[in-house]
Amino acid sequence: ICNICLSLNNFYLVSPNNSNATHHQAQLVDIALRYYHRKEFPYFLRNQHRLQLLDLSLNNIQGQIPQWMSKVSTETLLFLDLSYNSLTDFDDFPLVLPWSKLQYLKLDSNIIRGSLPVPPLSTVFYCISNNFLKGEIPQLLCNLNFLSILDFSYNNMSVLKVRSNQLEGPIPNAWESGNRLKVIDLSKNKLQEKIPKSLMEYKMLEYLDLGNNQIRDAFPSWLGSLPELNILSLSSNAFYGRMENPNLTVIVFPKLRIIRSFSQQIQWNIVLGDYDYSMTITHEGMEMNYPKIIRTLTAIDFSGNRFDGEIPESIGKLKMLHLLNFSNNNLVGGIPVAIAKLTNLESSDLSQNKVVGRIPMELSIQLTFLSILNVSHNRLTGLIPGGGQFETFQSSSFDGNLGLCGKPLLKECSSNSGSLPPPSSTSSEEFGLDWKVVLLGYGCEFLFGVVIGHVVVKKKLD
């Protein structure tokens, strides 16, 4: 006998649980025992070493998948279906399930708890939906090069991380409502087209990283409807247009702490619930470690996209801002004098835009904590302010502005260009983003806002 198929009957299989039952057993190839009314795994499976198909679905098998199952037909099994039982977990199995040639694995509709089991590298189809999984998706899952279908829907998974792969095409537009995901990291792939608006169904989402893909879309202000979103990363894509919210009656980004849109190498270590975020930032070969980001550390970074419009005067209301990065966009107009009101500002990068006019003298007087400044490759003119932190900046901070003069540049100013610059003035409406709405995310103690870290990206002129 090579094949046994007794599925969908009313048989009650009797399998003696003793060692004598294993003597002189036929080595079967296919076993299908769906709906066979037992609460445990058949004992006779222990000595099956040539199985290719094993179907024990639609039964009432309860508890753990026994450890001895990890030794059953490890080199031959192709198809395993344990769905629609009451299985809870794997008893002392290896980190990767042991069936080296397995292609089809169904574990759905059980009560499996804990982290997502990792199938072998040969797996093509893997379904483990309708269980009680939680936590992160293991990084090892990204090594399944043959995997065509993966279904872990209707679980309690809180973290989806598939960064640094070769995923391509559009982001799927089938995000179900009621999902419990808190973290989605699809960064460093080749995803294209637009961000699907079905992501608005993820009401518990706290972290969304779509950076380093090929997404071409307008600024997704509609993501502001997500009530728990803390971190949004859109870096190194092709976002364009003005950053605006078409419906100003909606409170956008009520809890946003970090918004990131630049080409930097950042690793996040997220502790959900406590909102403590540690990170390592690698910039120009130098690592900067942040073991814990305090809630008052705030920043705005929209760099490395195709945003246009002017920098709004109302940015001066973001009093707790530590980092401001609008580099590598198509911004126009002048540098607003309101930036001088950001007395906590430590880094400011406005480079590689089309900003015109003079650098406000107020920046050198009032920004006493400013340690990094980059306004290079714009269309600025006039005298570079002196004094204060401006005395510490190198000429590279001002390169690519043919109309600038004075230290630290070698170009001296004429009598006309050396006069004090008048205050700049721009309109928040011209920039597009409604900063009054962004300010709602700060709260009265500025514990939330738009947050990142102390690093400004320096990019070469295209």
TrEMBL record:
Q: SUPFAM superfamilies this protein is in?
A: L domain-like
The record's annotation in InterPro entries points to:
Leu-rich_rpt, LRR_dom_sf
**Main location per UniProt?**
membrane
Keyword Glycoprotein in the entry? The reply is yes
Subcellular location per the Swiss-Prot or TrEMBL entry: Cell membrane
Which UniProt keywords are given for this protein, alphabetically ordered?
Cell membrane, Glycoprotein, Leucine-rich repeat, Membrane, Receptor, Repeat, Signal, Transmembrane, Transmembrane helix
Q: Which PANTHER family match?
A: RECEPTOR-LIKE PROTEIN 12 (PTHR27004:SF467), RECEPTOR-LIKE PROTEIN 12 ISOFORM X1 (PTHR27004)
Entry protein name: Receptor-like protein 12
List the source organism.
Answer: Gossypium raimondii
Task: Read off the lineage from the record.
Answer: Eukaryota, Viridiplantae, Streptophyta, Embryophyta, Tracheophyta
